[in-house]
Amino acid sequence: MSSNIVIAIDGPAGAGKSTIARNLAISLNLKYLDTGAMYRAIALYVLHKDIDPQDKDCVKSVLKKVNLDIKTKSNGNNLVFLNNQEITDEIRQPEVSKAVSYIAENFAVREFLVEMQRKIGRDGAVLDGRDIGTRIFPNADFKFYLTASIEERTQRRLCDLLKEGYNTTYNEVKQELLRRDEIDQNRTYSPLRMAEDAILLDTTNMTQKEVLSKLLERVEGHE
Ligand code: CDP
Ligand code: CDP
Hints:
Layout: E1 6-10, H1 17-28, E2 31-34, H2 35-48, H3 56-62, E3 68-72, E4 78-82, E5 85-86, H4 94-104, H5 107-121, E6 125-129, H6 132-136, E7 142-147, H7 150-163, H8 170-186, E8 199-202, H9 208-220
Parallel strand pairs: 1-6, 1-7, 2-6, 7-8
Antiparallel strand pairs: 3-4, 4-5
The structure holds cytidine-5'-diphosphate (2 copies).
Residues 13-14, 18, 35-36, 39-40, 100-101, 104, 129-132, 180, 184 line the site of one cytidine-5'-diphosphate (CDP).
C-alpha cells in the first residue's frame, strides 16, 4: 500500500467517522486528522473570550491570535493544542458542540483552516469532517460518506456523553444533532454534502468492525 494515499471520510454528526477514520489510519499506517477538532478548538477560544460565535467579523478579527497544533498519540488519537495548551477533552463539551457550527459557517474560519488541513494531509492521511471530499481533497484517492439513522446517531452520541459524565437526555442529544446537521448542510461555504464520487455507507445496523472491514476491503482491493 502506497504510504501517501489520502482518504476522505465525511458525513453527519455521530455517523462514526472519527472512530472509523482513526482505526482505518492505524490499519493502513497512515496519519489521522480529525478536522472537526480544529473547528471545535476555535469555538472554544471564542467562548473563552466571551465572543458571540455568530458575530462573524469579531470571530474573524481574533483568528490571528489562534495558534493551533495537532499531535498524534500512539493510539492514533489526535491531541489538540490551542496556544500551547492542551484542549483535547475540553473541545468535546456540549457548549462547544452548540457553538461550533456557527464558527464553521464563517468563511474566514474555513479559509484559515483549509491550508493547514491540506498541509497535514497531503503526504498521506485519513481525514474526517464535512468537506474533505468536496473541498479539502477533491482528488482524494478514496472518499467515503458515512451516515446512519438519526435514532442510531443519537443513541451513539448519548452513550458517549453519558460515559464521559455529562448529564443529558436522548431528546436533548437528538435535537442538538438535528440542529447542527441543518446548519452544516445549509451554510454557504463548503456545506456538508456527499461528493459525487464518494462511496456511501449507511452504518445504522453495522458494528464498528464491520464498517472498518468494508472500508479496508475497498482500499486494499484497489492496491
Ligand atoms: O464529532 P462530531 O460529529 O460531533 O463533529 P465534529 O467532527 O467534531 O465537527 C464539529 C463541527 O465542525 C461540525 O458540526 C461542523 O459544523 C464543523 N466541521 C466542518 O464544518 N467541516 C469539517 N471538515 C469538520 C467539522
Ligand atoms: O465522528 P462522528 O461524530 O461521525 O462519530 P464518532 O464520534 O466516531 O462516534 C460514534 C460513536 O458510535 C462511537 O462511540 C462509536 O464507538 C460508536 N459506533 C460507531 O462509531 N460505528 C458503529 N458502526 C457503531 C457504533
